[in-house]
């Protein structure tokens, strides 16, 4: 394992932020720390980086006990949400900075920096200043700067959080391609479920300072460990005390299951959302356009909701 976190606890004052955290991060993997705000994701990342000291517990990086090592001695690269660029330096100098302070020779620095700028598609902007780049380009520069000293581990704290939705989507695709080229062990913090499912090899779900579940995106989505994970990793609806994914709901005009009255039919391009009221509870289902056309329901119609035969359900909390 590249990173082994064992029994880590961390409090700020009297407020516990991490509670008995134990996590293994495989070498060469791209792992997401996913959860709601205040769940402990960034604190765990900072503990791994050495920017925070755990109250109890240990952190090993590549079989070395790093618990008391300074960040500089852990050989990790760190990228924050806000790029922390040196505004008075060119893109080239920003990326070269970490190598210059390590006193590498100029020829090696230039070779390494230009390789990285080409890798992140910024080689044509080497002589520009950060203010002359777009937000997405500045974040790619920050990633190149973090990779320059060839860290064993790359840590990203909500790296795309300050960008608009379309740029975030483009950059997460780019990050996955970059990772597949450089294969550095990477851990990134996000509260965006789609981002975690789209990019990562493994997801660590954190809430209230506790690890709720660890697994592949497929395993966590299809086999959530508890109602929180199921609800956080995608939309759910409640049917007779059970949680079920809306796309796993079977809708019928024939009595059976939960009786409900349609309150709204929403076309969302490739799918149709059927919203309804069952007693005092709102329920809903996602249908394909073909399925909705065949059912032909309208506001005010009576329909019956039930989990499909292959649906995964959990008892509601």
Automatic annotation (TrEMBL):
Domain ABC transporter: from-to ranges: 3-233
Keyword DNA-binding annotated: no
Keyword Nucleotide-binding in record: yes
Xref: InterPro entries: AAA+_ATPase, ABC_SmlMolc_Importer, ABC_transporter-like_ATP-bd, ABC_transporter-like_CS, Mo/tungstate-bd_C_term_dom, P-loop_NTPase, Sulph_transpt1, TOBE-like
EC class name: translocase
One GO term describing the cellular component: ATP-binding cassette (ABC) transporter complex
SMART domains associated with the record: AAA
Gene3D superfamilies: 2.40.50.100, P-loop containing nucleotide triphosphate hydrolases (3.40.50.300)
PROSITE patterns: ABC_TRANSPORTER_1, ABC_TRANSPORTER_2
Gene name of this polypeptide: cysA_1
GO molecular function annotation: ABC-type quaternary ammonium compound transporting activity; ABC-type sulfate transporter activity; ATP binding; ATP hydrolysis activity
Keywords per UniProt: ATP-binding, Cell membrane, Membrane, Nucleotide-binding, Sulfate transport, Translocase, Transport
The protein, known as: ABC-type quaternary amine transporter
Pfam families given in the database record: ABC_tran, TOBE_3
Upper lineage: Bacteria, Bacillati, Actinomycetota, Actinomycetes, Micromonosporales
EC number assigned by the record: 7.6.2.9
NCBIfam families: 3a0106s01
């Amino acid at each position: 394992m590249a990173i082994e976190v064992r029994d880590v606890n961390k409090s700020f004052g009297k407020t516990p932020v991490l509670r008995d955290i134990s996590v293994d991060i495989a070498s060469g993997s791209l792992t997401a720390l996913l959860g709601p705000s205040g769940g402990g994701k960034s604190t765990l990342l900072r503990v791994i980086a050495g920017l925070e000291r755990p109250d109890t517990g240990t952190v090993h990086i590549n079989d070395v006990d790093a618990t008391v090592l300074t960040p500089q001695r852990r050989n990790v690269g760190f990228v924050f949400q806000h790029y922390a660029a040196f505004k008075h330096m060119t893109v080239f100098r920003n990326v070269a900075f970490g190598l210059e302070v390590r006193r590498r020779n100029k020829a090696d620095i230039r070779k390494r920096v230009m390789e990285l700028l080409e890798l992140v598609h910024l080689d044509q902007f080497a002589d520009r200043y950060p203010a002359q780049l777009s937000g997405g380009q500045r974040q790619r520069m920050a990633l190149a700067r973090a990779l320059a000293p060839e860290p064993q581990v790359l840590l990203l704290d909500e790296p795309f959080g300050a960008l608009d939705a379309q740029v975030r989507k483009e950059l997460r695709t780019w990050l996955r391609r970059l990772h597949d080229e450089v294969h550095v062990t990477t851990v990134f913090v996000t509260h965006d479920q789609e981002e975690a499912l789209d990019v990562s090899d493994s997801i660590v779900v954190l809430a209230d300072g506790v690890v709720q579940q660890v697994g592949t995106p497929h395993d966590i989505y299809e086999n959530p460990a508890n109602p929180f994970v199921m609800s956080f990793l995608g939309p759910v609806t409640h049917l007779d005390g059970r949680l079920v994914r809306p796309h796993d709901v079977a809708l019928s005009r024939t009595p059976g299951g939960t009786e409900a009255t349609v309150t709204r039919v929403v076309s969302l391009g490739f799918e149709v959302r059927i919203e309804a009221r069952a007693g005092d509870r709102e329920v809903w289902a996602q249908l394909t356009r073909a399925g909705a056309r065949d059912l032909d329901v309208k506001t005010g119609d009576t329909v019956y909701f039930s989990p499909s035969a292959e649906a995964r359900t959990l008892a509601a909390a």
